[in-house]
Structures are given as structure tokens and as C-alpha cells.
Amino acid sequence: SAALEEPITPPVRVEHTKLLINGEFVDAASGKTFPTVDPRTGQLIANVAEGDTEDVNRAVSAARKAFDEGPWPRMTAYERSKILLRFADLVEKHADEIAALEVWDNGKPYDQATSDEIPLFIRLFRYYAGWADKIHGLTIQADGPHHVETLHEPIGVAGQIIPWNFPLLMYSWKVGPALACGNTVVLKTAEQTPLSALYVSKLFHEAGLPPGVLNIVSGYGPTAGAALASHMDVDKLAFTGSTETGKIILGLAAKSNLKPVTLELGGKSPFIVCEDANVDEAVELAHAALFYNQGQCCCAGSRTFVHERVYDEFIEKAKARASKRVVGDPFKKGVEQGPQVDSEQFNKILRYISSGVESGATLETGGQRFGSNGYYIEPTVFSNVQDDMLIAKDEIFGPVQSILKFKDINEVIQRSNASSFGLAAGVFTQNLDTANTLTRALKAGTVWINCFDVFDAAIPFGGYKMSGHGREKGIYSLNNYLQIKAVVTRLKNPAW
Ligand code: ADP
Question: Where are the transmembrane segments (predicted)?
Fold first, then answer.
């Protein structure tokens, strides 16, 4: 198998492994480093400076100074917009190296990084560059002799904590709107994937970003992450990661200075295949909805509900499709699935597969480690999954499709919504009434009809229930990074 061959040498060198504070690459105050590992082999890629409380303090004071005294919030919005656009151009120019770093650190297929993640990243910065000079308040009619207006001001220093599944995309969703609104940022990357953020942030400074506006701290969650979440001088916090960590973050924000928090957390999204479905098309879309990015998506369609009328045919075809999925070295052309990000995720997924078997689901295909090196897992399909099984309730975050049978639309609505998550949902039908009913009934931040994983910069994304607070992307993300000030001026002569 491909995974057993010598790993392909990544077409890039690791240049940046230090923290980026106040426009300079610096060592951690402790001098400590941590390893970042190649998921294809479990071998070291590089040792990276390990940020901790003292480094977060340094980064926050750089961001504070850049906000309170620096040019960034004071320059014209058009100037800020031009820097964001220049940055997008530089990323486009270096797209191949950036993609290679992302693949090396994360394990996702190179084809996918270059066709999805990098173009979405660039598009997002161009989208928010377009907003930068269109952010303004209102004049408001109020009772009494007053002129009333609102000022939309940047909120200040934004602390941002991102996960490892889409290191660049998550960077863009956080940094894009924050900077477009004139804020300054301290970003903590995930410990599994620190490399691509350092590379692109260097380019940001080449594009003219003033020092201190964007600071990158690599390091672990309970140390660097917690220090950022509980910092008294951070004005706003945005987090993407697990629901468990989201609860901790919200607590830290509350216990410190009550900074507002945006949370984008876990999911167990239904993908509903209705009775009128073209089964071949439904199988392909349901497959992509689950297996994309090695199944490491917070919005993965991880409960595939299939109408009983098409269920048997669907199972046969879903099994055949998963068995055909091309697993191998993510640098190899045509590979659809690389390794999971690290040994922890790898072991967790294998435990969920065992739990599926033990709880009586039917293992249709896969179920084992793929090859003998690194963190590859066979594309796995379970049928006959019941709602109360762990594999139908927990977020597995791996290439494990759980297929459940349903009889009618009210039943599938009730079962879909019987989850503590509410991030996304997929619906596959040609029937307009069915689509409309499901769209309105499903408790999910996104409903994709006859499509899935559409991540345009203009479309808001976020969750109901324990999938999070707030929305990112689109016009909605601006609110996360603005303070609204009402200004009321008494009119001496209201007649005029
Ligand atoms: P996962 O389990 O998928 O790694 P996490 O929610 O643990 O997801 O991680 C997402 C991000 O949150 C990472 O950057 C991680 O370092 C950070 N993180 C983890 N624990 C904490 C914590 N206690 N405080 C702040 N950040 C944390």
C-alpha cells in the first residue's frame, strides 16, 4: 500500500519555528520548544518555540500598544484594505510552499489544500478587505431634541485560538474580520499544526502590516491557550475547537474580565437522504460529507440518515465507494485521504470503531489501521447504527461513516434534532416541500440542500446549542469585532 512506501519528500523547507511577537520572530521566554510531527510517519518535522504565559503577556502587550498607539486603527480603512489585498496576493504567489507546509504538518491531501483551503483563504482576505472601508454606523430617529448616531469602533485586542484540522482556513476566519475592523490580534495556533500560520504571518508583514498588529504564539492549550483566554487585557476572544474546551474557555473569560467570546465547537451533523434520492448521487455526496479531510471536520455529516426505501441500495453503494477511496501519502497526486493528524486522534478513532462493533452496528468495510506506518485509518462504514450507540452520539472526527435508517420525515426531524449539537445538516432531495420542511425544522447553523461543505467567505457559519455561540464569516463576523457606541447630541434648535 502507498503508506508503506517511503514518504515523499515535501517540496518545502521549514523556515519559521519561533513565536512572532511585535513583528519579530523570537524564542519563548522559557527557551522551551515542542515537537511538531509528520502524521505520515510519526517522525519529527521541527522543534517549535513553546509559548507560555510570559510569551502571551508579551504578545498581548505588543497588540495593546499597536492598538492604543500604533497606526493600524488610525490609518484610513482604505489603507488597511490595501494591506489585506497585498497579503492575499503574496499568499497566492507562495501558494505551493504554503500548501506543502500545511500538508506536511496536518496530513491532508496536497490536491485538497491547493484546490480548497488556499483558495478559500485568499478569497476570505479579499472579501474582508472589501468590508474594511464599508464599516460605518447609523443615524437614528429618536424621540426628543437629539441627534443620534452610532459609531462602529474596533473592539481592541482580539485573542484567537484555533484548531489543527484546517490550520489556514481557521486562521483566515479569525484574522480576516478582526483586522478588517481595525483590531489587533494575538493568535494561538494548535500545537499539532503551528507551521503554516508562521509562514503566512511573515508574508503579512511583507505586505505592510505594522508590527504588533498580528502576533502568533505557538504552544499548548492549558498553558498558552488558557493564558490568552484569561488575560485581563484581551478585549475579545474567538475560539474554534472541541465543546469540552469551549466550556473551559468561556469559564476563563468569565472569571477574568468578562470578554465576549465567539465559540465554534463540535457537531454530529445529520445528512438526510430522502426517499426520492438518486442513490448514486446521494452516496457520493454523503461520502464526501463524511470523509472529507480524513473526517476531521466539525460539520462532518456524521449521521447518515437514509430512507428505508433506498436504504439497502445505499448501503451497498456507500460500502463500494468507501472501499474505493484512495488512501496514501498526501503528497501523491490523486490521493483522497491522508493520515489522521496525530496518534491521539488515531487511537481515539480506533476506539470508536471498536465501540461501534461492540454495540452491534454492522461493519460494512474498513475498521482497521491502514498500513503500518503513521496514522492512517481505513475508510470505515457502519450500517444498522442505532441512535443510542456511542458512534451515533459522539463526534468521532475520523473516516467513520455511521448509516441509520428512517421511515418518515417527522421521525427524521425528531432524531436529527435529538443531539446536544447543532452545527450543520445536509439534505438530499428533489422534493421542494420536503426540502423546505427540513430547512425550517432542523436545529442547525447551516443547512446544505443537495450540496455540502460550501465554505464561501460570504456565508455565515456557526452553531445552535452546544455547537457554539455566534457566527463567523460574512457580514455577521464584523459584529464580533466591533464595539457599538451610541452618540446622543442635544439639539439647541430642534426646529432645524
Ligand atoms: P482537539 O481536541 O480537537 O485538539 P481542542 O479544543 O482541545 O480540540 O483544541 C483546539 C484549540 O484549543 C487548540 O489550539 C488547543 O491548544 C486549545 N486548547 C486546548 N485546551 C485549552 C485550554 N484549556 N485553554 C485554552 N485553549 C485550549
Answer: none
- Ligand 1 pocket test target in 245, 250, 293 with most atoms within 8 Å of CB: 245
pLDDT in single tens digits along all 496 residues of the chain: 444 578 999 999 999 999 999 999 999 999 999 999 999 999 999 999 999 999 999 999 999 999 999 999 999 999 999 999 999 999 999 999 999 999 999 999 999 999 999 999 999 999 999 999 999 999 999 999 999 999 999 999 999 999 999 999 999 999 999 999 999 999 999 999 999 999 999 999 999 999 999 999 999 999 999 999 999 999 999 999 999 999 999 999 999 999 999 999 999 999 999 999 999 999 999 999 999 999 999 999 999 999 999 999 999 999 999 999 999 999 999 999 999 999 999 999 999 999 999 999 999 999 999 999 999 999 999 999 999 999 999 999 999 999 999 999 999 999 999 999 999 999 999 999 999 999 999 999 999 999 999 999 999 999 999 999 999 999 999 999 999 999 999 999 877 6
Instruction: State if residue 217 touches ligand 1 by the CB under 6 angstroms criterion.
Output: no
Instruction: Please report the atom of ligand 1 found closest to the CA of residue 163.
Output: 10
pTM of the model: 0.98
Which of 34, 53, 161 should be mutated for ligand 1, with most atoms under 8 A from CB?
161
In short, whether 266's Cβ falls inside 6 Å of ligand 1 is: no
Catalytic residue, candidates 102, 264, 336, 364: 264
Residue nearest to atom 16 of ligand 1 (CA): 221
User: Catalytic annotation on 264?
Assistant: yes
- Ligand 1 and 190: CB distance under 6 A: yes
What is the 3-state secondary structure of the chain?
A: CHHHCCCCCCCCCCCCCCEEECCEEECCCCCCEEEEEECCCCEEEEEEECCCHHHHHHHHHHHHHHHHCCCCCCCCHHHHHHHHHHHHHHHHHCHHHHHHHHHHHHCCCHHHHHHHHHHHHHHHHHHHHHHHCCCCCCEECCCCCEEEEEEEEECCEEEEECCCCCHHHHHHHHHHHHHHCCCEEEEECCCCCCHHHHHHHHHHHHCCCCCCCEEEECCCHHHHHHHHHCCCCCCEEEEECCHHHHHHHHHHHHHCCCCCEEEECCCCEEEEECCCCCHHHHHHHHHHHHHHHHHCCCCCEEEEEEECCCHHHHHHHHHHHHHHCCECCCCCCCCCECCCCCHHHHHHHHHHHHHHHHCCCEEEECCCECCCCCCCECCEEEECCCCCCHHHHCCCCCCEEEEEEECCHHHHHHHHHCCCEECEEEEECCCHHHHHHHHHHCCCCEEEECCCCCCCCCCCECCEECCEECCECCCHHHHHCEEEEEEEEECCCCCC
Q: Is 241 in the pocket of ligand 1 (CB under 6 A)?
A: yes
